[in-house]
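Project standup — Tuesday

K.O.: blocked on the structure for the chain from last sprint. Re-posting the sequence here as requested.
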Amino acid sequence: MSDNSHRIESIKNLKQDEWEDIRNGVINLCNNFPGEYWRNLDSDRKYPEEFVKALTEAGYLACLIPEEYGGSGLPIQAACVILEEIQRSGGNGAACHAQMYIMGALLRHGSKEQKDKYLPKISSGELRLQAFGVTEPDAGTDTLSIRTSAKKTDAGYIVNGQKVWTSRAEYSDLMLLLARTSSEERVKRTEGLSLFIIDMQKAKNEGLSIKPIKTMINHATTEVFFDDLEIPFESLIGEEGKGFKYILDGMNAERILIAAECIGDAKFFLDKSTEYASSREVFGRPIGQNQGIQFPIARSYADMEAASLMVDRAANLFDKSIACGAEANMAKLLSSEASWKAAEAAMQTFGGYGFAEDYDIERKFRETRLYQTAPISTNLILAFIAQNILGLKRSY
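H.V.: unblocked you, prediction finished:
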């Protein structure tokens, strides 16, 4: 065996971790959902029901739910492995990834009755908690400016307002909703919002309506409207007015998990690019022999490996309950940029064939572009770093 072969084997052994069984299990599951499956869904703008059902039955979507509620009680590092491998296989974990970070608010701040009622059914797949109603048309990323209101009555709350970019609302049984419960000027902006869990199946007949939004990718996103929707007191999660704090707890998890998806996307593009560059011959030689093809792929690989280290660091801190806002944001920033660079390299490597649906490059190209913008834009992360890490004055 050559020196380089020894080195490669050493690296492989170094990277083998305690999640290898989970990684292999997800790979095997995803093998049942090849590119053709995702292409057909993308073409028809359909939700991947069979895929989500298979993930649920295998227990992967309940990996972060404690064992006492029917889940696996695993750390976020395991969830990162699951989502990374879904993306690397050519699939799209965005169809269901929200459940992994949404349920954290319920687990950490919900009452015993709420956890006993919902978490076992979420674990088993009887209920889906996939919808997160936060963003509004006028507020955008300025969450503290949302206007959707929940006014207290003798019987509970009456909700009025509108949410936008609420993905999976059509395919979810439950929604976490952030609404304004106090508009008094003397109340701090961060203390005027409350978090609710909504039974969407019941609410659809009593004041909730959903309008799909057509987008460049098959993301099942929607607008959600609330028109005098009555919800009981038991819908409130934790204390009234503390909702913004509760969702902040889950934002780091969201950024870390989506960063892991981006790493998976980058690996998908790198796998495809290196394979194609090795087999495709032009002018009597493999195109991968040309530096114009080699260098972008190699650079993308380096960027992906560096970003992956930041994802690992953020996940490790999160699992140890150590403040990780900076690391989670940087992981999302670096990973989304790494996946986009790998996507660009793949398009250049495949040339005209990169635009052909059968190769899955153009579909994944569109899908991974989303994460330059969502769930938080690159510029806002840079503003966060400038202000909160470097100590520069706030720019907005």
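K.O.: great, moving the ticket to review. The beta strands are 129-133, 149-152, 156-164, 174-180, 193-199, 208-212, 222-232, 236-237, 281-282, 285-286. The CA atoms of residues 340 and 368 lie 7 Å apart.
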